[in-house]
Amino acid sequence: MHTGPEASATRNCAAMDEPHVLYEVADGVATITLNRPHKRNAMTPEMLVRLGRAWEDVRADPTVAVALLVGAGEDNFCSGADLGRLIPLLTGARRADDEWDEAFLADPDCLSRALMRGFDVYKPVVAGIAGPALAGGTEILMGTDFRVASERATFGTTEVRRGIIPAGGTLARLARQIPYTSAMQIVLGGEPVSADFALRCGLVSRVVAHHDTIRVATETARRVAEAAPLALAKAKEVMVRTSGVPLDEAFAFEAAAMAEIMATEDAREGPLAFMEKREPRWTGR
Fold first, then answer.
1. How far is CA 115 from CA 40, 124, 221, 248, in A?
2. Which domains occur in the chain, in start order?
3. What's the whole-number mean pLDDT along residues 179-199?
4. Which residue of 83, 150, 190, 266 pairs with 213 in a disulfide if CB–CB is 3.0 to 4.6 A?
5. Average model confidence (pLDDT) for the chain?
6. How far apart are CA 200 and CA 24, in angstroms?
7. How close are the terminal C-alpha atoms of the chain, in Å?
8. DSSP SS3 for 50
9. Pick from 213, 170, 168, 162: which is nearest to 191 by CA?
10. How many CB atoms lie within 10 A of CB 274?
């Protein structure tokens, strides 16, 4: 076993060799882990490419009912863009120097897909926020549905203090999800806010004891995944796509969705299982 400074250097090298995003599916839940704990899970081109691919897998895999997004490390979620790797690549201050840089630059939709900005994931997405969610770390939350935060978590879009803007979906979505003045404080104030503030303004769903964060988020994802997968995805789709739409159009969209779901095997199985006092056996058909 390595000890002392050499051990620390060995662990850091091993961490840098690991994929920047981990992906695992079990019991209907796809767990996506932002995996740069030694850098507070700051976003790199590799992370964004892998994250975009992960959301594509979530959307396409019929065995996935719910996604769970977490950050590696005991006190981490995501500290935003890596200012030494990602931002200089975006501004042209540095050239691509590996395959991930090249893949990122070759795909103009990579950033938007990674942040679920214009890339719709209608399956429910749960976030477990065990540490700071700053800049891109807050932006990615705009595409999630259940947000379980540690009492120690902080949130903020600090981009205006770096000469840039939070255009990963926050400017378009934040004021639709929380009150106007709270959104302006987060974006224009450019300073982190507490988990308590985030809960009061509706940015997060729950605030829990720090050591319970990932457990509660995981339990939430598993509990949601017990519902009928087609019904989950269609219910979310209707709510997302009818946001801001006139009521008559929204009602028509809702009715069409209802007709589609009522024709499925799962719509017959749910009431039958209830009457027979047993757990439903969903087929996703």
1. 17, 15, 19, 31
2. 4-224 (3.90.226.10), 229-275 (1.10.12)
3. 96
4. 150
5. 92
6. 33
7. 52
8. helix
9. 162
10. 11
Strand-pair partners of 81 = 43
> How many Cβ atoms sit within 10 Å of the Cβ of residue 148?
28
Cα torsion angle, 210, 211, 214, 219, sign: negative
115 within 8 A of 143, measured Cβ to Cβ: yes
Residues in the chain: 285
- Whether 69 shows a pLDDT value over 60: the answer reads yes
Distance CA 215, CA 201 (A): 24
pLDDT in tens, 96-135: 888 999 999 999 999 999 999 999 999 999 999 999 999 9
Where do runs of H (alpha helix) occur along 95-228? 99-106, 110-114, 136-139, 170-177, 180-189, 195-201, 213-224
Beta carbons of 142 and 135 less than 8 angstroms apart: no
Pairing of strands 154-156, 29-34: unpaired
- With both helix axes pointing from N to C terminus, report the angle between 247-262 and 229-241 in degrees, rounded to the nearest 10: 170
Sign of the Cα pseudo-torsion (266, 279, 32, 26, in order)? negative
- Give the residue among 28, 136, 39, 143 at the shortest CA–CA distance from 84: 39
Residue 105 one-letter amino acid: L
24 contact partners, CB below 8 Å, separation of at least 6: 30, 31, 33
pLDDT category at 249 given cuts 50, 70, 90 is: very high
In whole angstroms, give the CA distance from residue 217 to residue 231: 21
Task: Report the catalytic residues.
Answer: 139, 159
